[in-house]
Amino acid sequence: MTERTVDNGARSGSGRVRLFRGAGLAILALIVLGLCFLSVAIGTRSVAWADIWAGLQGQTETIGQAAVAVRIPRTIMAALVGAALGLAGAIMQGVTRNPLADPGILGVNMGASLAVAIGLAWFGMDMAQLYVWTAIFGAGVTAAFVYVIGSLGRGGATPLKLALAGAATSVAFSCFTIAVILPRNDIAGGFRSWQIGGVGGATFDGIRLVLPFLLVGFAVSLLSARKLNSLALGDDLAAGLGENVAVARGMAAFGAILLCGAATAACGPIGFVGLMVPHLCRLLVGVDHRWLLPFSALTGAGLLILADVLGRIIARPSELAVGIVTAFVGAPFFIWIVRRQRVREL
Amino acid sequence: MTSETLSLTVTANRHARARRSRRVVAALALVLLAGFALTLMLGQSFTPPGDVLRVLMGGDVPGASFTVGQLRLPRAVMAVLVGLCFGMGGVAFQIMLRNPLASPDIIGVSSGASAAAVFAIVVLSLDGPAVAGFSVVAGLAIALLVFGLSFRNGVAGTRLILVGIGVAAMIDSFIAYLLSRAPSWDLQEAMRWITGSVNGAKLDQAVPVLAALLLFGGILLSRARDLEALRMGDDTAAALGVRVGATRIIVMLSAVGMIAIATAAAGPVMFVAFLSGPIASRIVGPNGSILIPSALVGAVLVLAGDYIGQFALPSRYPVGVVTGALGAPYLIYLIVRVNRAGGSL
User: Fold this and answer.
1) pLDDT digits 0-9 by tens, B141-152
2) Domain holding B328: CATH number?
3) Are A303 and A271 in contact (CB under 8 A)?
4) What's the pTM?
């Protein structure tokens, strides 16, 4: 076999892989669409098909149609936030080369939540726009804090050290959050239900508020895919390839923090989505971030919609907040990864 | 130095350490007693010591009978009892697993007991001893689950902590769900099961806690020497004639028992189990049994935390929030210190 045919074979092989992955992405998008439809159709109240159809067209005359009208923003919000968390998780796992990284486990969501609590209780923050900025600020500070603590000492930020630093920070911050919010009887009740993590109260206004932040976050994150691929080779090799390691890390982390902060501001701190999704997607498409990131975003969207629908079915006639559902699915997954013989760096 | 003088020095040192340990225990007990007396006298209003004594003797003093006998006394008694339970049970866990992070409130045992209590109250409408029973069973189940899941050629430190944190995350969201199903509860009542509180305690609720303290505390104290030996590692302990497996099981059963029953009464008072041991070992020094000092430190923490939460801050907090705000920085500090030292954590 000549060198040339080998080359051709490899190229056509990679072309085929690209075709498969492109088709996979399309199928995934279809599945997410299907789940969106399920989420609009299924709920605590059973709605007839005619009413679902009418509700989708914007009618709100019967109770069923009104229920459908409420479910539409909720579904869109779940898709957006799920995509944000899945993507953020994939980036965090890439940046820290840590299979346990997740916006919830590393305490980033809790940091965003604490910042919002402080803004609400101490500074009387009432402008909705400010709310998102505060959450993003909290997410960024916490991410830096956890990374510094986790990388102290010998061996730098090993997976277990970083996860432990994040989990401890998360526990500590949830204590502070309670202490900050408790004296304010007027906002404490609402804050607590927000903090469980749910998309139940989503409105189009809420979506419009966080959408710009999420879009910038999506763009920055997806653009950093190639840089993450270089980082995966190790810092030295990445630098040898001409990559500015610090800039690459910073850019990817910035995207992830935007996504986590905006998602938390919209729906409260939802954990474990960003942990599970990249692991599942790596099974499908391997470690190439150019594919891993879009797959993670779509899978995250699908997962959160599914979790939301499940929460409505399981707890009929009331409903289970989506944060509770993801904790119940995600925590065993987390334990499973921790239990593996050696938690390898990615 | 001949071997005889050496052995004399060793003996003298040991006596000196035992003396110091006794002195520390006496001092801690005095602090606790003083704190207890103070919380009975001082609240929104001042009650003179004579009136407090008369109420304690069963006398009827107008006004004081209610504030001291009905409000302050049950609250203070409950705070001291659950503090003793958390302090002793927590340090028993930490010694047994040789890791300060392996305290029951971090690895999910307290959350499990709390979730069971909420479940028993909200869903099954139980009360009294049945709730405590539920808590004990759930606490044990969670402890076994965490050990089982993290077991691999011996229980490894960090893996156990992370598995525990994962389990705790699930339980906490279960509690959040249960609480959301009990809309008649106000936030204060809900906070009891999330952070712990001795608000509205009654004396008869303290009886099971006292029983648990006497029974399980007695068992733990009778095993104090074996527990200390475990601190040096399983092999060393076995070489010293300790039955390692049996000691572990007995210690775990007793520690979980006291913590779960205390949790069923006052909720999982945050970080008291985690903080008491390290504080006590700072005070006592490296030697001597730490069970009693740690229990006393736990009681002082809960008593002081409850008092601070009621009167010293601009608004009222349940005790768990105060101890939580105290313990959270220490938790982060501990991780910083261990990472710096390059420990195997």
Assistant:
1) 999 999 888 876
2) 1.10.3470.10
3) no
4) 0.87
Parent domain of B71: 12-340
Q: Which residues pair with B191 in a beta bridge?
A: none
B227-251 tens-digit pLDDT: 888 888 888 888 888 888 889 899 9
Q: A251-301: per-residue pLDDT in tens?
A: 999 999 999 999 999 998 998 999 999 999 998 888 899 999 999 999 999
Q: In 10 A of CB B249, how many CB atoms?
A: 11
On chain B, the residues whose CB falls within 8 A of the CB of A161 are 158, 339, 345
Contacts of A343 (CB under 8 A, 6+ apart): A99, A100, A159, A160, A337
Question: How far is it, in rounded angstroms, from Cα B339 to Cα A170?
Answer: 17
| Residue bearing tokens 């339980």 | B171
Main-chain phi, psi angles of B114, to 5 degrees: -65, -45
Q: Does B165 sit within 8 Å of A154, measured CB to CB?
A: no
CB B266 within 8 A of CB B80: no
Minimum CA–CA partner of A100 in chain B = B162
For A256, the enclosing helix (H) or strand (E) is: helix A245-267
- If you write DSSP's letter for every residue of B223-292 in order, what string do you get? THHHHHHHTT-HHHHHHTT--HHHHHHHHHHHHHHHHHHHHHHH---TTHHHHHHHHHHHHH-SSS--HH
Residue B45 counted as domain residue: yes
Both tokens of residue A96? 């820290």
Chain A residues with CB under 8 Å of B108 CB are: none
Return the residue matching tokens 């572990």: B248
Answer whether A173 sits within 8 Å of B328, measured CB to CB: yes
Q: What gap in Å lies between CA A235 and CA A238, rounded to an integer?
A: 5
Query: Could you report how far apart the first and last alpha carbons of chain A are, in Å?
Result: 35
User: For chain B, what's the residue count?
Assistant: 345
Domains and their CATH numbers in chain A: 72-304+325-339 (1.10.3470.10)
DSSP classification of residue B336: H
Residue B30 CB-half CA count within 13 A: 6
Q: What is the ipTM of this complex?
A: 0.85
Nearest one of A119, A124, A98 to A264, comparing CA atoms: A119
Nearest by CB to residue B342, choosing from A150, A154, A171, is A154
Beta bridge partners of B42: B46
Closest alpha carbon within chain B to A331: B166
Q: Is residue B86 part of a domain?
A: yes
Place of tokens 């927000």: A194
Find which of A335, A340, A343 to mutate to test the B interface (most B CBs within 10 Å of its CB): A335
Number of folded domains that form chain B = 1
